[in-house]
Amino acid sequence: MPPLLAVFACALFAQTPTVQVLRFAKVWTATNAPVMENAAIVLEGNRIARVEKDSGKYATGSTVIDLRRYAAIPGMIDAHTHITYFWDGAAGTNPRRQPRRHPAVAVILAAENAKRTLQTGVTTVRDLNASAGNDYALRDLIEMGKIVGPRIVAAGAGIGARPAPPGVEGMRKMVEERLAAGSDVIKLFASTGGFEDVTGKQTLSYEEMRAAVDAAHAAGKRIAIHTYGPAGFRDAVKAGPDSIEHGADVDDSTLREMARKRIWFVPTIDHNRFYIDAAAEFQFAAGSAEGLTSYIARNLDTARRAHAAGVKFAMGSDAVYSMFGQNTRELEWLVKAGLTNEEALLAATSHGAELLGMQDRIGKLAPGFLADIVAVEGEPWKDVRAAINGIRWVMKDGKAVSGTASR
């Protein structure tokens, strides 16, 4: 063979993607297809080539991974995290009272949150508020393969009314600044509320919210609005963001309008359960648990009525600090809100992908999609508790990142 042709042939051979065959007892694809039994997922490089009946015969050179004790579901999506909030539990500190750290140190420490998130079967997160560009850095390091973690859709610093309401022009400018800095999505704080605070007092006007929504959409980006109380929720729905986070005590007519506008709801019900469990860790004031318990009931009631009104749901944990590793406990609350087990699982897979605008890449086990695949003991489409407690092996982007399997 002439030297030039030999070089060309070697280049073609080097570009041939690695073939992996994953064998499962069952595969739930998050599509309209029925669950497939005794199935194989064939990967070429980091993409799914096909999902088919397991014939036991594979192309020469394929890497075969035996996961026949388990079922396969797509890698899940947590649509609301704060993945750079890290606490090491050091004596004399609590999550919100820690020594000030350089951003580079904070990012490296946050790798532990990233690891815990992957172990829950979550392979993509939307991170909605971080300081000093920490989420941009963690996102980029994970994408570069320098840190192992979930794919991050980053908002950077959320925009709110501090130190003063920004006004319409100020709001547009702040959105533009976030996007120029590297935000994939915009996060807006339109009310009080967070940690033990469940007051929900509206802090941004409808006009300010609308200015932010218009600026984000004009740039081709999505926007999420945080609001705990009904007034801010009503104005947020009028403003027309892509999603509303949290929310309680909302009237049915507002929820019907939300459904009509196809605004996603990410209720984050479980995070207040976490705060009750971790009240001593956070050193919350006496009586905080009562307020959090009341808010959970009202938040859940709003979610039930939103589901009845036809509002679309995505799963979001609002995980912070030591909550990482509990990302998928929100699934049980979605079922309590009236979603079927399969609808709740869709909220964490294909529907979450749709909220992120990534419905052509993640959230399904289908040809052409990224190989984000989770092996689970049980059938979470029938009982979501299997997706909370039964995760045994996780693949992201065609690489195993958690658990063990037979080869």
Order of helices and strands: HEEEEEHEHEHEHEHEHEHHHEHHHEHEE
CATH architecture of the largest domain: Alpha-Beta Barrel
Mean pLDDT: 95
Low-confidence stretches: none
**Total E-strand runs:** 15
In helices, the fraction of residues equals 25-40%
Strand order of the largest sheet: 3-2-1-4-13-14-15
Question: What general outline do the C-alpha atoms trace?
Answer: globular
Report the radius of gyration as a whole number of Å. 22 Å
Keywords:
single chain; 407 residues; alpha/beta; Urease, subunit C, domain 1; TIM Barrel; 2 domains; seven-stranded mixed sheet; five-stranded parallel sheet; 36% helix
Would you give an account of this structure?
This protein is an alpha/beta fold. The protein has 2 domains: 3-74 and 364-403, Roll (Urease, subunit C, domain 1); 76-356, Metal-dependent hydrolases (TIM Barrel). The protein has 14 helices and 15 strands. The chain has helices at residues 3-14, 103-119, 134-144, 167-181, 206-218, 230-239, 252-260, 270-277, 279-282, 288-309, 330-336, 341-347, 350-356, 385-389, and strands at 19-27, 36-44, 47-53, 63-74, 76-81, 122-127, 151-154, 185-189, 222-226, 243-245, 264-266, 312-313, 373-376, 391-396, 399-403. The strands form 3 sheets. A 7-stranded mixed beta sheet has the order 3-2-1-4-13-14-15. A 5-stranded parallel beta sheet has the order 8-9-10-11-12, with helices on both faces. Strands 5-6-7 form a 3-stranded parallel beta sheet, sandwiched between helices. A hairpin with a 2-residue loop joins strand 14 and strand 15. Helix 6 packs parallel to helix 7. The protein is globular, with a radius of gyration of 22 Å. It starts with a helix and ends with a strand. The mean pLDDT is 95.
